[in-house]
Amino acid sequence: MPKVGMPEVRKPQLVKATMTVIGRVGLHAASISLISKEAGVSTGIINHYFGGKHGLLEETMRVVLRELSATVIDALREIPRHHHQARINAIINANFEGFQAKSDVVKTWLAFWSYAMHDNELHRLQRVNEKRLLSHLRIELRALLPEEQAAMVAQGIAALIDGIWLRGALNPKGIDANNARTIINDYLDKQLTFYGRPQG
């Protein structure tokens, strides 16, 4: 039996196992038994660290959201603050590349999106993620557009990210990050042309 008392090792191990099992059998069929077997631990370990399946699902969602947030922040840190369109592209890229584009993560996102409609805590986490995305976008767009239009275009970009991501997630070929960038930048360019502040 594995030793209890190693949360820094056990928790990531169990989150990874959760995503693997969700990817294989779906969220509803992802039982404590299957997850513990995948992780190579006893079911008691899950109860010990998370208080059961629901707590483990919440932690899995938090990990996915933390990874996304860290990716966005790290990418923005590398781009000068006055390069607003490049920074918008960095936000877009974070949603379509790297960790977020891994097969198990994509399937976990899909499962949580459907489950969050019926679960208050998961819905809250999803709302936090949505507000964070819109906040990042508005910060950059305010430098390029009047306030009202910046908020509207941020909503448009967020909707395109979600829609393109969902279509890609359901496509056997996966998510095409280059195509996502092309579509979203086409929308952004048109909005900047129509609403953009005069230069000079």
TrEMBL record:
One of its GO terms (biological process) is negative regulation of DNA-templated transcription. Pfam families: TetR_C_6, TetR_N. It comes from the Bacteria. One of its GO terms (molecular function) is transcription cis-regulatory region binding. Keywords: DNA-binding, Repressor, Transcription, Transcription regulation. Pathway: Amine and polyamine biosynthesis; betaine biosynthesis via choline pathway [regulation]. Residues 31-50 bind DNA. Residues 8-68 form the HTH tetR-type domain. InterPro entries: BetI_C, DNA-bd_HTH_TetR-type_CS, Homeodomain-like_sf, HTH-type_TetR-like_transc_reg, HTH_TetR, Tet_transcr_reg_TetR-rel_C_sf, Tscrpt_rep_BetI. Repressor involved in choline regulation of the bet genes. Repressor involved in the biosynthesis of the osmoprotectant glycine betaine. It represses transcription of the choline transporter BetT and the genes of BetAB involved in the synthesis of glycine betaine. HAMAP family: HTH_type_BetI (MF_00768). This is HTH-type transcriptional regulator BetI.
